[in-house]
Amino acid sequence: MSNIQGKVVIITGASSGIGEATAKELASKGARLVLAARREDRLQKLQQEIQSKGGQAVYKVTDVTSYEQMEELAQFALKEFGKIDVLVNNAGLMPLSPLYQKKIDEWDRMIDVNIKGVLYGIAAVLPSMRERKEGHIINMSSIAGHLIGPAGSVYSGTKFAVRAITEGLRKEEFANNIRTTIISPGAVSTELTETITDLELKSAIDEIYKGAIDAESIARAIAFAIEQPSDVAINEMIIRPTRQEL
Ligand SMILES: NC(=O)c1ccc[n+]([C@@H]2O[C@H](COP(=O)([O-])OP(=O)(O)OC[C@H]3O[C@@H](n4cnc5c(N)ncnc54)[C@H](OP(=O)(O)O)[C@@H]3O)[C@@H](O)[C@H]2O)c1
Does position 1 have pLDDT exceeding 80, yes or no? Predict the structure, then answer.
């Protein structure tokens, strides 16, 4: 039997891309899912698809930039399933631009979703995980959390922050038997590049993304981290397209 069977997993950003693929992968291995994002129609459709294949999923419309809503999401998971085994802090956006363009609103959104959203998720699930002395928090960084390119200063800043926060969390909580995993994908074919508002830059990035791998590749890596025995922590994974240099 898979070690994923019966685990209660909250996934943020479950309405598309990596989050959606992860939900399907984990549902097929018997996880009980709590799907979160802002687009309710997408969450509903995903829930129905999972249920039609015999999987278990509930959803809650959640904006990760609201601590209140993240707290409500954790309480919802506890009410529905009685525990939280795993949080996949996946929601994120990547509106790349050079700093001189001063796209302040986009910087703020990246910081709010990519960093604060991750922190709020951790804050919402930690109390119950600490009480049970069991849990697993998986945070989505990026290859941009290891490398910095032009137009990627703020995005990379947020993804470096995710790695720093996750490693700090590991040092604080390993003794409480709480596992942490940093996932750093290279180019993955999703809706992520749609958040780039500079059209010239977007077409250059879309060119790189022609070599992107599918979201299921990252879903399988997440499943691998979750399905390890509880005394084994996969703390960090980089998953690139084989043909990606950066
Ligand atoms: N694709 C790649 O090449 C790649 C590479 C490295 C890392 N990543 C990371 O992977 C993660 C998932 O991205 P993706 O590639 O799957 O892109 P995606 O298809 O655009 O998915 C992004 C998800 O985040 C959710 N989201 C955005 N803002 C939100 C908010 N305020 N509250 C709740 N949910 C929010 C979106 O749902 P709603 O709009 O419905 O809220 C959506 O489900 C991101 O953290 C991204 O940085 C992706």
Answer: no
